[in-house]
Every structure is written in structure tokens, then in C-alpha cells.
Amino acid sequence: MKRGLAERWRRRGGRSVRLVLAFDDIMEFALALLSVPPEELKALGWTFADRKRLLDHFLASGKAAQGVPPERLGATPIELDLPQRDVDRLQYFARRELPKAASNAGAIDRVLSVLDAASHRG
Fold first, then answer.
1. What are the helix (H) ranges across the chain?
2. pLDDT given for residue 75 in this prediction
3. Is 119 or 45 the better-scoring residue by pLDDT?
4. CB–CB of 77/17 below 8 Å?
5. Average pLDDT score over residue span 26-52
6. Of 72, 78, 44, 40, which Cα lies nearest the Cα of 58?
């Protein structure tokens, strides 16, 4: 029985990591993920399913942002729970692709800082 639990845990991506980012930074990152063409996905070693799973993490932030007044929404800190495996993938993506796609250099710095702090390597 323990072997089955360990296998499911590994399949889900390992331990869960909590990230806190401003809503605007989350949306900036999500737009950068959407802008990656298929050949770049392949270069990252990702499939469309990988990108969809990563985007699903960010889209869940919309539920957390409901009820926040529009004038405060962009700066509202949102908590995301991601598997460590996905934090590692997002960290690699943020270093390699985010500077090409993001419109806000401050968002890049904030996202990298949060991902580095959350990474078991960082």
C-alpha cells in the first residue's frame, strides 16, 4: 500500500509548494506561457498537455481574485499551490522565455525571485 502512495505522490509532481504573486504578475506569466509557439515548447521539452497543466495553475488564481475591487486587483497577492516539478519547470521557463515575452521587467524580477525562493535548488 505504501508503494502505491509514493507512486501517486511522484506522479503528481512531488511536494506541494506555495507561491505568492501579485495578480498582474500571474497574468503576465500566463500570457507569456500562451505566447510560446509549438517549436519552442519542444525546445523546452514540454508537450501541449504540460503547458495546459501549468496554465491551469495560473487560471485557478482567478477564483481567488473574485470579489476584489477592480482598482486593487492588479496588486492583490494571490497564493498558488504547485507541485515542485512544476515550480522547477516554471523557473526554467522564466529564465529562458519570460524576458522575451513579458512587457514588464519588474514582473520578471518579482516572478524569478518568488520561484527561486520556492525552488528546492534555490
1. 2-11, 23-34, 38-44, 48-59, 61-65, 70-73, 84-96, 98-101, 105-118
2. 93
3. 45
4. no
5. 91
6. 78
Residue at grid coordinates 470579489: 67
Query: Rg (Cα) of the chain, in Å, rounded?
Result: 15
- Report pTM: 0.81
In whole angstroms, give the CA distance from residue 104 to residue 31: 12
Contacts with 79 (C-beta within 8 Å, 6 or more apart), sequence order: 18, 19, 20, 64
Task: Give bridge partners of residue 18 from the DSSP assignment.
Answer: 81
> Helix crossing, 48-59 with 84-96: angle to 10°?
100
